[in-house]
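just leaving the lab so this will be short. what follows is a protein written twice so to speak, once as letters and once as structure tokens for the fold. can you read through it and tell me how you think this chain folds. thanks a lot i owe you, the record is right below.

___
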Amino acid sequence: MTAWLPLESNPDYEKHRAQEHEKLSVDPGVFPDDLFYMRQLTSNACGTVALIHSLANSKSISLEDGILKSFLENVKDLTPEERGKALENDKSFTEGHHELAKEGQTVADPEEKVNHHFVALINKNGVLYELDGRKEFPIKHGPTTDETFIQDAAKVCKEFMARDPDELRFTVMALSSV
């Protein structure tokens, strides 16, 4: 299961992110070898990166042959930064993304300043992780289980909301095999 959070990018969020980065720069912690994490190096690609994080770390969703499965296989042994660069340079992924974007109702300008930011919350080996491609490291939020993941993720969501109580634009989406 994965929760997908669109966050409003604002001064309070950016301040928290900077403080968190400073703390984690000293000791980022140890992560499972099979935790898939990548940096977001492409402007306005946070939703794509959050979805990749969600799917790549899901045990219950198997991908069929295609662009995403190919991409994940090609970058599995790279660093998070190298993965972000690979996504940025992956012609098949970019072309597929543009084709799907044309089906939508909104024209997205890659240079437009966007106020929303998407991150993924996942359960990996009994630990709730926040995977945010703009951050240097995954963020551990403590223990979780398949049975308690929604409640545990909701606590993290409430922490995000408490940092900016005047912001009403906040949404959660769960990706689940059930």
Remarks:
- The chain has a mean pLDDT of 82.
- The chain is about 40% helix and 15% strand.
